């Protein structure tokens, strides 16, 4: 009788995916966000950054989704990073204990491809 060793998970197909949340992250919009995150996780990224700069509200269902994404990534040695949360969102994440598990960072937002950002000099 021969036994097959379990195959190791395939290598990541993409190293990093960045997602911007530009609306409230709550029960109403969660199915769509969850679907997008499922599609992203199917790419098996090493790191997923969710930019929360445009998000002004998260609820308990959203926190549960973020923790689920974190767990799914950790199973494959991946990382979830939450970036640029509004101070109110940062407090919610801290109160819920999310920031003790998932890195929450302030990072410069990359310029969108195909656009230039120009700062005018003060007069």
Describe the protein's architecture and organization:
There is one protein chain. With 123 residues, the protein is an alpha/beta fold. 31% of the residues lie in helices and 14% in strands. It has three helices and four strands, in the order E-H-E-H-E-H-E. It has helices spanning 30-42, 60-75, 87-95, and strands spanning 16-20, 47-51, 79-83, 104-105. It has a four-stranded parallel sheet with strand order 1-2-3-4. Helix 1 links the parallel strand 1 (16-20) and strand 2. The termini are far apart.
Radius of gyration: 17 Å
Number of DSSP strand runs: 4
Principal-axes shape call: globular
Number of helical regions? 3
Secondary-structure-based class equals: alpha/beta
The pLDDT mean sits at 84
User: Quick one: biggest sheet?
Assistant: 4 strands, parallel
Strand order of the largest sheet: 1-2-3-4
Name the poorly predicted regions.
1-9, 114-121
**What percentage of the residues does DSSP assign to strands (E)?**
5-15%
Can you write the helix and strand succession as a string?
A: EHEHEHE
**Percentage of residues in helical conformation:** 25-40%
Q: N-to-C terminal Cα separation, in Å? A: 82 Å
Question: What is the structure about, briefly put?
Answer:
By secondary structure, the protein is an alpha/beta fold.
List keywords for this structure.
123 residues; alpha/beta; 3 helices; 4 strands; globular; disordered N terminus
């Amino acid at each position: 009788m021969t036994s097959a060793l379990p195959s190791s998970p395939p290598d990541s197909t993409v190293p990093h995916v960045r997602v911007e949340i530009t609306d409230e992250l709550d029960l109403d919009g969660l199915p769509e966000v969850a679907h997008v995150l499922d599609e992203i996780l199917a790419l098996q990224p090493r790191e997923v950054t969710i930019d929360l700069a445009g998000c002004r509200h998260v609820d308990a269902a959203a926190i549960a989704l973020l923790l689920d994404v974190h767990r799914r990534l950790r199973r494959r040695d991946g990382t979830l990073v939450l970036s640029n949360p509004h101070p109110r969102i940062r407090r919610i994440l801290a109160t819920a204990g999310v920031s003790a598990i998932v890195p929450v960072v302030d990072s410069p937002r990359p310029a969108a491809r195909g656009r230039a950002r120009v700062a005018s000099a003060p007069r």
